[in-house]
Amino acid sequence: MDIGHWQCKRLTLCLPHPLMSAPALPSPPVTKREIWIDLLRGFAVLIMLETHCVNVFLDPSTVANPAWMGWLNFFNGLAAPTFLWIAGYLQGLGIRRAIATNRPLLTRQRLLRLLLICLLGIALQIPWSPWLAGDYGIASWTSLTAVNILQCLAMSLFVLLLLGAWMRTRYDLATALLAIAVILAATAANGWSTGLMPLDSWLNRNNGSIFPFFPWFAFCAVGSLMGRWELSWKTWMPLALLMIFGGTGIQHGPFDQTHPGFFFERLGYVLVFAIFIHATSKICRISWLQLIGRQSLFIYVLHLQILHSLPLPGGSPDKLWANQLSLKHTSLALVMLLLICLAFAWLNEQRQNRCRPANPMPAST
C-alpha cells in the first residue's frame, strides 16, 4: 500500500500548488479498484473497532458460549493482516507505475509520509503516566520501543520502496525472495537478540512488540506482488482456499505467530475478504464504509484516544468499564464508538476538501 495513496495524503499540509495557475485538468475518475480497496480497508477498520471494544469492555464470563469467543478472537486477528496486505497492494501499484514512467521512488514526499506514520505510532505509546510520576524504568522504555501496526506498516513500505529503487526491473522478484526469507526466518527470529532493545523490538515479540518485522512484513510484500494481477475470483478463490487449508494443515503444536502456517492461513482469509468486497463493490458502493476506509488512519488514532484517553469523571473508558460490560452493552458501546468516529471522519474529510485546490492536479501515488 503506497502510504501516499492510502492514508498520509490526507495529512498533507495545504500548501499552494506550483501549477495552480496552469489550466485546470479534470480529476481522474474513481475506479472500481479504488472503490473496493476503500471498502476493504473500511471493513478492516470495523473489525479493528470491534476488536478493541471487546478487549476493553467485554466481561468474558457473561458470554454463554465460551467457544464462540475463540472464533471471535481468530476473526479479530484478521484486521492487521488485511491492513498490511492493502498497504502492500497499493504500494506495489505505485512502485510499478513509477518504474514504468522512469520516475524516482525515494522522493522526499514519500519518505516524509512514512516517517510521519512511524512517528505517530511511537507517539501513541509514549508512557506518559509512569514518566510524569518520575518512573523511567525499563518497563516504560519497553513500552515506548515496542513495534505497533503503524511502525510495522511504515517500515514495510519503506523496505518495498528500497527494493523498487534498488532493483527496479527485478522489483517483484526481489520482493518475492525477501517475503519467502522473512516467512521462513520468523521462527528463528524468536531467539535473535542484539542487546539493543529498540532494534530487538523489530525482530520478535520478546520485548513487547505486537507486530515485529518477522513475519508481518510478508503480508505487505505479498500484497505488493498480487497487485500484478487483476482480481478474479476464478483464480484468487482457489489460491485463498489452498492457503487456508494448507496453512491449517501444516501447523502443529501450540499457537505460534511465527509459524509459516499462521501466515498462510491468515493470508488466505484476507484474499477471501478481498474477493467478496470486490464483488460487493460492483453491486453497491456503501458510501459510509468508503468514508471509513478513506479516513482509516484518522479513525485509528481517534478511537484509541476515545477508549484510553477520554477524560470522563472517574477516568477514561478503559478504566471505568474495564471488562465489566455484558455482550449487549459492549455491542452498544461499539455502535456509539462507530457513530462518533463516522461523524468526526466526515468532518475531517470536509476540512481536507476545503484545504485542497478547486481543481487539483492528479496526485501521484
Give the secondary structure arrangement, pairings included:
Layout (H helix, E strand, L loop, with lengths): L2 H4 L25 H26 L8 H11 L2 H22 L7 H16 L4 H5 L5 H8 L3 H19 L3 H19 L7 H7 L9 H14 L6 H18 L9 H22 L5 H8 L1 H14 L7 H4 L6 H29 L10
Helix pairs in contact: 2-4, 2-13, 2-14, 2-15, 2-17, 4-8, 4-11, 5-8, 8-9, 8-11, 9-11, 12-13, 15-17
Structure characterization notes:
- By secondary structure, the protein is an all-alpha fold.
- It has one domain (3-19, 38-355).
- It is 67% helix and 0% strand.
- It has 17 helices and no strands.
- Helix 2 packs parallel to helix 15 (296-309).
- It is globular and about 60 Å long.
- The N and C termini lie close together (10 Å).
- Mean pLDDT is 88; it is low at 1-33 and 360-365.
- One of its GO terms (cellular component) is plasma membrane.
- The chain crosses the membrane at residues 39-58, 70-90, 111-128, 148-166, 173-193, 213-229, 236-255, 291-310, 330-347.
- This is Acyltransferase.
- It holds the Pfam family HGSNAT_cat.
- GO terms for molecular function: O-acetyltransferase activity.
